[in-house]
Write a structure and sequence with these properties.
This protein has helices at residues 10-16, 52-55, 61-66, 68-74, 115-127, 147-150, 182-199, 214-227, 242-245, 253-263, 270-282, 296-302, 305-309, 313-322, 355-369, and strands at residues 47-50, 78-81, 131-136, 140-142, 174-176, 203-206, 232-235, 249-251, 289-291, 326-330, 379-382, 390-397, 400-407, 413-417, 424-428, 434-437, 441-445, 450-455. The chain has two domains: 28-377, Glycosidases (TIM Barrel, Alpha-Beta Barrel); 380-455, Golgi alpha-mannosidase II (Immunoglobulin-like, Sandwich). Helix 10 packs antiparallel against helix 11 (270-282). The strands form four sheets. An eight-stranded parallel β-barrel has the order 1-2-3-6-7-8-9-10. The longest helix has 18 residues, at 182-199. The chain has 15 helices and 18 strands. By secondary structure, the protein is of the alpha/beta class.
Length: 457
Amino acid sequence: MKPRLPLVPPLLLCACLVATLRGVEPLQVCGDQPALAAPEWIRHETIYEVNVRQFSAAGNFAGVEEQLPRLRQLGVGVLWLMPIYPIGVENRKGTLGSPYAVRDYYGVNPEFGTEADFARLVNAAHAQGFRLVLDWVPNHAAWDNPLVKEHPDFFVHDAQGRCVPPVDTDWTDVVQFDFKNPTVGDYETAAMIHWIQKFGIDGFRCDFAKGLPTAVWNEISARLRAVRPDLFLLAEADLPQEQLRAFDAAYSFGMMKVFTDVAAGGAGVSKIEDELVRTQVAFPRGAPLIRYTTNHDENSWAGTDLERLGGGVEAFAVMTFMLDGIPLIYNGQEAGLDRRLKFFEHDPIPWQPSPRADFYRTLCHLKHADPALATGAPMRRIATTVNGSVYALLREAGAHRVISFCNLTAKDVTVDAVDPVLNGRWRDAFTGETITWQVPVSFPLPSWKYRVLVSAE
């Protein structure tokens, strides 16, 4: 067993627990409180999710390292690696199992390489200007994780004294940690600090973060930031209270669902505005959310972005960069990935030339370079005569302005607008064309098309 660091006095932690075995905490409305300040370095970056198993034919760390120059050219700045730890064998799903069934929180999956191979990848990524975020799996562990036998008090048991999977899930390959025991938080904190201190990890994406009480996360976060003040913590959750003291960013599950519904014609474009207002009220002021059209879960289980968004794949991707937040790209999107990747098998991404690469490159570089697209920069909707079809958005920071028009329907429209902000010279981010506008402005916008204009004054 690895050494554990003290977290908080057990009585204090137990008194703070509000979650129950059968569910998560209720959502708290936090719009009247400030969010935890995210590190400055994340504000201009795009996160790129790396499924190490599927990223290359070899399916290892070396396969990721080989493509770092290409990813640097793409313009992403943060690499999130899906879990890299040894995978449980007992009750394993499929041939290779789920990377979220962790057998050793201090180890490296031998299928991916050695510790030295991982260190080489981290060092190469840092040398090329990337930040590197590890996927952390705090809620559950593999059945054959040694902790199950060495520390049975770390886990929830049924009436017969047997470990149990997380309730109301089909995650039969893992068992549920018991966070009523404060030493579970001690152990996890120590393990996370190990990766920070030994390898220089820049942050963690925390899987199923809502499975842990916010009080536990608050204490873990404080301990981690005492070691690395500019650490980035991303919650795979949408509990507003977790962004008061624990997490720098959370998932925008609601907006991704809205995108899917709008693309299918089951909801109007106004639903985007409704979701923005909802999160503005619920989440702390300034709380960043991850904007995305797909990820490993969506791709493997719900369908590719092409399946779910149809002709709107690019238009909705533009929205993920234009809305305030932190954009996320799932590996393969830039190659036009058009199939679901198998989750429990080796199923390499079919890398191929695609115009989608230039598309994402334009968006990533614009996000990185223009202050108007920095996370936290103000945004507002621009009114048009076709608000039912087009979402027009202004982002600005000082003299810097970016405006976008996204037709999120399958019908051609003509956009008319009179907002004074449209006056002046603009450069089209995708074509390089320079135009001068004087309101009223009017232009055609075919189905599923978009325009992104950068102030050229």
